[in-house]
Amino acid sequence: MPSNKTDNHHNAGGFRSNLLQQKFSSPVMILFLIAAGIFISFVTYKAQFLGLGAILIILIGLPMLYAVVAYPHFGITIFIIFSFYINYVSEVIPDSIPIGTLLDALTYLLILGYIIKQRDDNDYSYFKNPISKLILVWLAYNLLQVANPAASSILAWVYTVRTVGFIMLMFFVFSYHIKSTSFIKFILKLWLSLDLIAAISAFQQENFGFLPFEKKWLYSDPLRVQLLFIEGHMRKFGTFSDPVTFSYNMVIGSLICMALMMGKRNTSKKVMLGMLAAFFLLVMLYSGTRAAYVLIPASLGILAVINFNKRVLTFTLIGGFFLAVLIVMPTSNPLIKRFQTAFKPSDDPSYNVRAENQKRIKPFILSHPFGGGLGSVGIWGRRFAPNSMLAKFPPDSGYVRVAVEMGWMGLILFCTLFFVVLKTGINYYFQIRNPELKNYCMAMILVLFAFNIGNFPQQALVQYPSIILFHLATAIIIGCKRIDDAEQKLLQANQADLQLT
Questions:
Q1: Where are the alpha helices (H) located in 385-465, listed in sequence order?
Q2: Which of 119, 150, 174, 467 is deepest in the core (most CB within 10 A)?
């Protein structure tokens, strides 16, 4: 009897023989390939770049669209990668190409795939949690902003809710498809890998200079240079859109590594995670974003409270000691000096300017319970209502922006959402029994807590990929509890069977 290896080799050889000799050598196939080659050449010659783009869309784009809808894990992977690089790629391609619509299209496709699969399953039990309900309420509040009488432009609302609203729905897409521990592990590996690439890019920018296309994009706008060149040092941003987004993601990456180090892993993996966290924090300094410096001690504080034990307490005390030394020690290093000013906000001129802006806008917030309209602040406000007061207002803080655009009612709802997310995550952490899932849940709590703190001095949740990672981290917490519940039910069922036997 021939071996399996021989059978596999024979089958593979038969497949190649059948495909190449019988299919591709047939007259019909040869004529088709010749006609296809002539057609592609003709279209490329006549339409040039647009023609080639159309051909690539047909050959690559359409199969990709099908794969995103039919294979959601693949779609989520592509979606996360796109969110990390969409702004970086926009530095290379012409402004006339609407690359932002690609991420919108991926969002719509993933939502479509979710609707199709949910229609077959018809199971909404895992959405019965406080976070899902609050997100739906927050989404409804955003949609109702279209009727805000104080809004200066409906178009600003349209362009803002087009992205913000659908991105909120990604929480449900993520929650639905995170059904296994292996997929959570894959997401975290992908997340850290993309952060590592961004960190390497920032290291290159700091020590070897910007790449030619980065330099061209950077110096194409004098205002951009003015904002990024501070105290004789150009702030670095890696593969992100700006130094703030870059620094926040480096902090979040380091927090994930620190949390994973506390799980049951071998020494080599813990050392690798520790080196990765240290590298993330090093390149974070290149950004010159003082707000990011505060996130580490604040997040380590919540870590010590949640996971209170002798080892964590020792680690926190040692980290706090070195941090205190770093804050007070004399230095001539401009990066460390800027780091020290983050813990002395009263000595920071930019902080004082922000405090003055917030004081100036406070009467408007108090007199407008529903705000000045979604999209009234920022790029869409300047585009569709350039003469309005809000279009010229620099919100700086994410919470201030919510209060200005959606009123103090919206701010209360937004803060309630943050509170419920953290409270639910902490409750789930103590309820989950699987140590691995417990560790992943703790890592996501640190991520969400960092976003919560970081949203006060800066707008932490307006740029990609931060807004997507926020919903992804929330969905992972829901997924950890869901998987653990299934494991506990299976364990109880097995124990009941053993008792019966």
A1: 398-431, 435-454
A2: 174
